[in-house]
Amino acid sequence: MRYTIGLATTFHDPALAIIGPDGEVLFAEATERYLQYKRAPNCEPDSAPRMEGLLKRYIPDGAEVAIATSWGEDFTGFLDQMARAGSLSLEALLKLSPELNRSLVPERTERALIASLHHAQQRAGMGVLLGLDRAYGKANVTGLKRYGHHLSHAAYACWSSPFDNAACLVVDGMGETGASAIFALENGKLREVKRHRGRESIGFYFGLVTDLAGFDQAKGEEWKIMGLAPYGKTDPELMALLRRLYAIEGHKLSFAKADVVQAVAAEILARRPADALDKGWADLARCGQDVFAEMMEALLAETAALVPSENLVMAGGCALNSSFNGKIVGRHGFRTVFVPSAPADDGNAIGAAWLSHAEANPDWRAPKGPLSPYLGSTVSTEPFERMQAWEPRLRKLSADEIAPVTAKLLTEGKLIGWVQGRAEFGPRALGNRSIIADPRPADAKDILNAKVKYREAFRPFAPSILAEHAADWFENYQDAPYMERTLTWKETVRDRVPAVVHEDATGRLQSVTVERNPRYHALISAFHELTGVPVILNTSFNIMGKPILHTAEDAILMFYTSGLDALVIDDWLLVK
């Protein structure tokens, strides 16, 4: 009875996962949800008070517990050496330059991130240990194993995919030796093919563009570049400046030196419009996205040359670029592309745990994917039971009433908070922690942005669509279970759902099936019956700058302090 707890321990997006004796994922969640702190920078994923409850729920008393995390032993040892030499101290940081270096981030910032990474590795597993003491008065822990960062990305992505054989490309901000790596999935086993080396990265490039465009990568605002890009135009001068940051020779992608990076950034800032800090810079967003695609194309070509396959698995933070993901199929020989629900560092909690489980059980193979994303916490409805005494607008419906009643409210133009079952693992709301609306009114997007989300008007909303009808609505339709790619709407249907058609006629869709999410499928089916449209507008249940909700109290607070018209949690309905 050996259970494994996986910890994602980067300086951002910490997460934890619990794996059962058979390798089943029992629980997986990003720490930001529990803390309600966006991206939870420099926070431990396994605080002891939280672990006590999770351990009691998922791991029986007396079971062996293995702990795994996602940065390798050699690299962690190197960080220890840096710390002993004083290179990670505040005094050392003060001596460094705040100017951009060749890694495309300021030199002092880069070292501070490394120092934060070191601290995260030092405390990895302590919360589990203390949580076991709190839960059971003892800790039957077999030890802590550390696995390569990109290997953890690949393990989670490949083993949660539907493939036995595939090429795998990992691209993010940083790893142990570089920011990207190529793996081969062969009969369910992983093999590292090539590891890139160097401090610079496509991930840091996209962060630099985010900052130059008037946003803040430290707040995770890279999303805004993708949303704003379709509103911009290609500026030849901006393109030329951005292309000075990198070069492609054959399959090799290389970056400019520090002086060039600084000069390019200065020239771009000199051209930045005065209102960019308020509205963003659409032309730079467009050019930045286009150059991102050029660099990713080089890595895809290299991946295809080294691991010829019809199947591609993408992982790492750059795999969250849904605009690019939707354009991969049919290029470089890839006929099918899989991106997991949590391709960024939070997914490494599952990846590290699975690597530990596989090492202890060499014959184990992951079950056929795609893995369900509904792996997180449930929401207690006990607050509603208390509210019945004083809230006349609250009622409990039967299980078969929820879908048709909610669908009717959608057709009346209501904005609805929809909370069901277990939370999604990853950054996207997939019908269990969602705000939903009718996609047919042309002003629905503007109303939702202004009344509930409190965010920029250019930010798009996603369509959740019944998978059985999706080919009638999207050109060259691809199954998208995790809202991980954008596709182009067919021209004949765009005016039927204008609220979810972005400026470039795309939508970041979620393919909904009855097997993946029966209640959400029932809701969209009921809306389809009423309207003839098998699509609803779906966005995450949060306001800008906050994580997706974690508790019923979070949902109730947002209901009463925003423009939401109704709140549905399990079988409970609350209306204004």
UniProtKB/TrEMBL annotation:
MF (Gene Ontology): catalytic activity
Limits of the Carbamoyltransferase C-terminal domain: 407-576
UniProt xrefs under InterPro entries: ATPase_NBD, Carbam_trans_C, Carbam_trans_C_sf, Carbtransf_dom, NodU/CmcH_Carbamoyltrnsfr
Domain of life: Bacteria
Domain Carbamoyltransferase: 140-353
One Pfam match: Carbam_trans_N
Family under the similarity heading: Belongs to the NodU/CmcH family.
Name of the protein in its database record: Carbamoyltransferase
